[in-house]
């Protein structure tokens, strides 16, 4: 008899539940990341990082700060798991060297909102396709194309201050995605 992959809560549902904690962590937060798969003692979880933005004085634009909290939801039940404070040190991310070069802080102009929303939606679809295989540590030859696309989308649309946080928080998942995409 063929084994069936586990039924997981859709990534969009968990991401929405976790994002509902914006502004409710005791620290002002107004930005939620893409969900990040994180295995834990209680099973597979999806973590959403929360971060504040601050106004850039000369331009008036909002500038995203590094994440301050992660909200976890349980992938199998869809239930809230926990909120934890996070910083670079707690995730083993080296602190960036202070730069006096103002051009180092400038980034590429953001993609149009509709394009970004479509890519975020595609990430959620790809998570739904790949998470059952990751959760069961199954060989993922069938998900090679999805893994490659998912890896590329995370790299493309990850918020610059969050890039090392995605990799550190979801280390086991991103290692699996990299192996699967390369197979």
Question: What attributes does this structure have?
Answer:
5 helices, globular, 7 strands, alpha+beta, five-stranded antiparallel beta sheet, 183 residues, 19% strand
List strands and helices in order, with pairings:
Elements: H1 11-19, E1 31-32, E2 36-40, E3 43-51, E4 53-55, E5 62-64, E6 69-74, E7 80-85, H2 113-135, H3 144-157, H4 163-169, H5 171-182
Antiparallel strand pairs: 1-3, 2-3, 3-6, 4-5, 6-7
Helix pairs in contact: 2-3, 3-5
Instruction: List the uncertain runs.
Output: 97-109
Q: Overall mean pLDDT score? A: 84
- Biggest pleated sheet: 5 strands, antiparallel
Number of helices: 5
Rounded to the nearest angstrom, the distance between the terminal CA atoms is 27 Å
* Strand portion: 15-25%
H/E element order: HEEEEEEEHHHH
How would you explain this protein's 3D organization?
There is one protein chain. This protein is α+β, with helices and mostly antiparallel strands and 183 residues long. 36% of the residues lie in helices and 19% in strands. It contains five helices and seven strands; from the N terminus they run H-E-E-E-E-E-E-E-H-H-H-H. The strands form two sheets. Strands 1, 2, 3, 6 and 7 form a five-stranded antiparallel β-sheet that branches. Strand 4 and strand 5 form a beta hairpin. Helix 2 crosses helix 3. About 7% of the residues have low confidence.
């Amino acid at each position: 008899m063929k084994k069936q992959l586990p039924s997981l809560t859709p990534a969009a549902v968990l991401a929405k539940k976790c994002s509902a904690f914006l502004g409710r962590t005791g620290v002002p937060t107004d930005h939620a990341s893409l969900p990040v798969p994180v295995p834990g003692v209680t099973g597979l979880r999806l973590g959403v990082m929360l971060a504040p933005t601050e106004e850039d004085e000369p331009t008036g634009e909002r500038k995203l700060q590094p994440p301050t909290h992660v909200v976890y939801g349980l992938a199998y039940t869809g239930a809230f798991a926990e909120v934890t404070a996070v910083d670079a040190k707690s995730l083993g991310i080296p602190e960036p060297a202070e730069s006096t070069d103002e051009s180092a802080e400038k980034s590429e102009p953001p993609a149009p909102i509709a394009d970004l929303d479509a890519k975020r939606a595609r990430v959620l679809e790809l998570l739904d396709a790949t998470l059952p295989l990751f959760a069961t540590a199954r060989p993922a030859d069938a998900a090679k194309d999805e893994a490659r696309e998912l890896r590329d989308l995370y790299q493309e649309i990850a918020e610059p201050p969050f890039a090392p946080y995605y990799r550190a928080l979801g280390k086991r998942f991103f290692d699996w995605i990299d192996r699967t995409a390369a197979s």
